[in-house]
Design goal:
By secondary structure, the chain is an alpha/beta fold. 41% of the residues lie in helices and 22% in strands. It has 11 helices and 12 strands. The strands form 2 sheets. A 6-stranded mixed β-sheet has the order 2-1-3-5-6-4, with helices on both faces. A 6-stranded parallel β-sheet has the order 9-8-7-10-11-12, with helices on both faces. Helix 1 crosses helix 10. The radius of gyration is 18 Å and the shape is globular. It starts with a strand and ends with a helix. The structure holds NADPH dihydro-nicotinamide-adenine-dinucleotide phosphate. The site of NADPH dihydro-nicotinamide-adenine-dinucleotide phosphate (NDP) has 26 residues, from helix 6 and helix 10.
């Protein structure tokens, strides 16, 4: 049987663990999937993705910096991709490409299923209003926390994102507001760091007063870059979690969109974690 072709497109893309994750999903489910990496020139995303589809590709994941452009190339998109203004998944349907954004649902599944923390009724602080923050805000609201505060270094960006999600928040019964990093408030049961602070070697973009006793603190980064945040959260008495679970869960959702089959994520997450620990 010839395998159906998928790939992750980005620039850079060599670091992406998506091929390893999707190979594990294919082995586990018996789906005939071949998944590779495609480095696109910074001014050549559209040409690269069209070439891949014309050569028989069935769909792709899209990573930095092309997630915004990916959404514009699709004929149809999910509500969560529309709200995010960006897509990380394309499916090349014959009657027009379909775009989705699986980052947010990946995060929500990791928090609720893998970490065992239901979001309904909780107070959530989301830090970061860049591409990652925009991608996870809609699905976090759909999980119906009591309140969600979006804090960002540039408060105007947080305000714009909050304005775009106001009706969605209201439809899900969530109090949604914007804040600066120093004015986020205190006593949150869940903190999600979707800012790039860990990439810059900083422990946390906010002070420990934001955390309620026994809070869950999640950084979207993983590997060595997440270590200072995890240490900071642990020292503040929080339960600390990196972004590896979200990475595997968003991949599983993409796999489901393409194949209609939902892989088991736990063994794949365990394998990746063991690989990272061995490399450290
Ligand atoms: P962007 O460049 O789009 O946005 C960066 C955001 O971080 C902005 O909100 C910016 O604030 C803020 N920021 C940057 N530096 C600091 C700092 N020192 N202190 C506080 N805030 C800061 O990046 P992305 O949103 O795409 O990515 C953010 C992080 O999420 C990255 O670390 C990325 O690796 C990770 N990620 C993980 C995923 C996973 O599957 N685990 C998926 C997607 C992303 P301002 O607006 O003021 O500039």
């Amino acid at each position: 049987m010839t395998a159906d072709r998928y790939a992750v497109l980005g620039n850079p893309v060599a670091h992406s663990r998506s091929p390893v994750i999707h190979a594990a999903f294919a082995r586990q489910t018996g789906e005939a999937v071949a998944y590779g990496r495609l480095l696109c020139p910074l001014d050549g995303f559209e040409a690269s993705v069209r070439e891949f589809a014309a050569a028989g590709g069935r769909g792709c994941n899209v990573t930095l910096p092309f997630k915004f452009e990916a959404l514009r190339l699709a004929a149809r998109c999910s509500e969560r991709a529309r709200l995010a203004g960006a897509a990380n998944t394309l499916r090349f349907d014959a009657d027009g490409w379909f775009a989705d954004n699986t980052d947010g649902i990946g995060l929500v599944r990791d928090i609720e299923h893998n970490a065992g923390v239901p979001l309904a009724g909780r107070r959530v602080l989301l830090v970061g209003a860049g591409g990652a923050g925009a991608g996870v805000l809609g699905p976090l609201l759909a999980a119906r926390p009591a309140e969600l505060v979006l804090a960002n270094r540039s408060a105007d960006k947080a305000q714009a994102l909050v304005a775009r999600h106001a009706a969605w928040a209201q439809a899900h019964g969530v109090r949604l507001s914007a804040a600066g990093l120093a004015t986020a408030g205190t006593g949150f049961e869940v903190l999600v760091n979707a800012s790039a602070s860990s990439l810059q070697g900083q422990a946390s973009p906010v002070g420990a007063e934001v955390l309620a006793a026994g809070a869950l603190a999640v950084d979207l980064m993983y590997g060595a870059a997440a270590a200072p945040f995890l240490a900071w959260a642990g020292a503040a008495g929080a339960s600390a979690r990196d972004g590896l679970g979200m990475l595997v869960e968003q991949a599983a959702e993409s796999f489901f969109i393409w194949r209609g089959v939902r892989p088991h994520t736990a063994p794949v997450l365990q394998e990746l974690r063991a690989g990272l620990a061995a490399a450290a």
